UniProtKB/TrEMBL annotation:
Organism placement in taxonomy: Eukaryota, Metazoa, Spiralia, Lophotrochozoa, Platyhelminthes
Organism, scientific name: Opisthorchis felineus
One GO CC term on file: mitochondrial large ribosomal subunit
Pfam families: Mitoc_L55
Stated name of the protein: Ribosomal protein L55
Biological processes annotated in GO: translation
InterPro entries attached to this UniProt entry: Ribosomal_mL55, Ribosomal_mL55_sf
Length: 110
């Protein structure tokens, strides 16, 4: 068997190139896909307070799943809806103290 392989090489010659699909070929080319299969480990916070680890397409630290308000008690629903409404901001305006006296500069206007 060894002799047949050796004779086969001699007959084909050293110019016969064999393309092998291995890791070295991947260095020369790129992935021909529009979406890459890379998934990132992400922690998901569930509404009941539990957390699990999943694989997600975007690198994020934490994903929080929203709470279903239909399953809450009326008091809890009211409390959560009040937290969602924007709070009124107090606009503080400073009173500027005006001590400018025009008569002190009238001699410059003449």
């Amino acid at each position: 068997m060894m002799q047949s392989l050796l004779c086969d090489r001699i007959v084909r010659g050293p110019l016969n190139l064999i393309t092998r699909m291995n890791a070295n070929r991947a260095m020369v080319t790129h992935i021909k896909r529009k979406t890459y299969p890379r998934m990132y480990p992400v922690t998901v916070a569930l509404p009941n307070g539990a957390s699990i680890r999943i694989r997600y397409a975007e690198p994020r630290y934490l994903l929080q799943i929203p709470l279903d308000l239909d399953e809450c008690s009326p008091e809890e629903r009211q409390r959560r809806l009040l937290r969602r409404t924007p709070r009124a901001r107090l606009a503080l305006q400073e009173e500027i103290e005006d001590t400018f006296d025009r008569s002190a500069y009238e001699f410059l206007l003449k």
